[in-house]
Design goal:
alpha/beta; TIM Barrel; seven-stranded parallel beta sheet; 9 strands; about 50% helix; binds coproporphyrinogen III
C-alpha cells in the first residue's frame, strides 16, 4: 500500500485533493548529494550498474525535494547496450557509441533484449521499492523506439539526427526491422520492470521533434502504440514526445494514461487536442527556475490554473538543467504542493 499515491491516482483519472508533482531529471547534478554518490563509482556506466548507488540517488529527491514520485535512476541507453551496442558517457559531451548501425547485417546481429539482460536495473528497482517503503510511487521508463533508433544510427547526440533520418528515407524497410527489434526489447524490459515493483512507466521520445508529422506516425507512433497496448493493462503509461504537438491527438489515441508536454504548448490547446479523458503532465520551462521566487510563483500559479486540479501531474517540460539552484527547485515543488484552487 502506498502512503502517497497522488501521481498514480491522477494518472488513472481518479480525484485528488491537490496537484501532485515530480520532475524529470530530479535525480541528478542539481543535488550535491547526487554528485557525492556518483563520485563513488568509476564512471556513469558503473554507477548505473550498481543497484545500491542507483537506489540511493533515486530516493534522494524524495527526501530532499519532497516530490510525489521517485523515478528509477538509469538511462534509456541501457537498451541499445543490452541489444549489443555498448555506450560510453563522455563527461560534458554525452553518450557515445563505438559501433553504430549501418546495414542489414548490423541490424540482424542485434539481439532482442530480455528482462534478465537488465538484471542490474531490476535489482535497483526491487531495492528502491523496499527502501521507499510505500512513501511514493516508483516510476520506471524506457526510451521510445524512434529515439533509441536515432542513437543507434547516429552513435551520439546530434542537433539534426540527419544520419538517422537519412536511414528512414533511404532504407525504410530496414528501419522498420530495427524499430521492431527495439520495440520487442522495450516491451520485455518494461514488463520486467513492472514485475520488479515499478508502479507506472514513462516512454521518453526525446527526439520526436526532428521528424515530420507523416514520419512520426509511420516510424515512431506505430511502435509506441504497440508498447502501450501490451503495457497499459499492467501499469499506467505516460508518453512524453518532446516537440510533437502536431501528434497530441494521435498520441491520445494510443489510449495511454498520461501525455507529457514540453513547455512550448499551451495547456488549453493541449486539453482541446486530447479530450477530457487523458491526464496531462508538464510543462514548466526548466529555465523558469533560474528566475526569482516571485516570478516562479506567478508563472506556476498561471500554469496550475490553466491545467486545473484533476487529470494533471505537475512537472517540467523537460529535464532539470544541472546548474539550476536546488533551493529554487524546492521552492517550486513546495509551491505546487501548497497551492489550493
Ligand atoms: O531523474 C531522472 O530523470 C531519472 C534518470 C534519467 C537519466 N536519464 C539519468 C541521467 C532518465 C529518465 C534519463 C533518460 C534519458 N537519457 C533521456 C530521455 C529524457 C531526456 O532528457 O530527453 C535521454 C535522451 C538520455 C540520454 C542521455 N543520458 C544524455 C543525452 C545524457 C547526457 C546529457 C546530460 O544530461 O549529462 C545522459 C546522461 C545522464 N542520464 C545523466 C543523468 C543523471 C547525467 C550524467 C552525469 O551524472 O554525469
Amino acid at each position: 500500500m502506498l502512503k502517497n499515491d497522488l501521481v498514480l491516482k491522477a494518472a488513472k483519472g481518479e480525484n485528488v485533493d491537490r496537484v501532485p508533482v515530480w520532475l524529470m531529471r530530479q535525480a541528478g547534478r542539481i543535488l550535491p548529494e547526487y554528485k557525492a554518490t556518483r563520485a563513488k563509482a568509476k564512471n556513469f556506466i558503473e554507477f548505473v550498474k550498481n543497484p545500491e548507488l542507483a537506489c540511493e540517488v533515486t530516493i534522494q529527491p524524495v527526501d530532499i525535494l519532497g516530490v510525489d514520485a521517485a523515478i528509477i535512476f538509469s538511462d534509456i541507453l541501457v537498451i541499445p547496450e543490452a541489444m549489443g551496442l555498448p555506450y560510453q558517457m563522455i563527461e560534458a559531451k554525452g553518450p557515445w557509441f563505438e559501433k553504430t548501425i549501418k546495414n542489414k547485417a548490423d541490424v540482424e546481429a542485434l539481439r532482442i533484449a530480455q528482462g534478465e539482460d537488465l538484471n542490474y536495473v531490476l535489482q535497483a528497482l526491487r531495492l528502491t521499492k523496499k527502501e521507499l517503503n510505500g512513501r511514493v510511487p516508483l516510476i520506471g521508463f524506457c526510451g521510445a523506439p524512434w529515439t533509441i533508433f536515432a542513437y543507434m544510427i547516429e552513435g551520439s547526440g546530434s542537433k539534426t539526427f540527419s544520419k538517422a533520418k537519412q536511414f528512414l528515407y533511404t532504407q525504410p524497410e530496414l528501419s522498420h526491422l530495427l524499430l521492431d527489434k527495439i520495440t520487442k526489447s522495450s516491451i520485455n524490459y518494461l514488463k520486467s520492470q513492472i514485475e520488479a515493483g515499478t508502479d507506472m512507466v514513462q516512454i521518453f521520445d526525446s527526439w520526436a521533434g526532428v521528424l515530420s508529422e507523416k514520419q512520426y506516425y509511420e516510424f515512431a507512433l506505430k511502435y509506441i502504440n504497440e508498447i502501450v497496448a501490451v503495457i497499459k493493462p499492467l501499469a499506467p503509461v505516460t508518453v512524453f514526445a518532446k516537440d510533437a504537438h502536431y501528434a497530441l491527438k494521435k498520441i491520445s489515441e494510443t489510449n495511454c494514461n498520461t501525455i507529457g508536454l514540453d513547455w512550448t504548448i499551451d495547456a488549453a490547446k493541449a486539453r482541446t487536442e486530447v479530450g477530457k479523458n487523458m491526464t496531462l503532465q508538464g510543462n514548466a520551462d526548466p529555465c523558469l527556475l533560474y528566475a526569482d521566487e516571485k516570478t516562479i510563483a506567478k508563472e506556476t500559479e498561471l500554469m496550475l490554473r490553466a491545467f486545473g486540479k484533476q487529470r494533471y501531474i505537475c512537472n517540467l517540460g523537460h529535464g532539470l538543467y544541472p546548474d539550476i539552484d536546488k533551493e529554487k527547485v524546492k521552492f517550486f515543488v513546495n509551491f505546487v504542493k501548497e497551492f489550493r484552487f
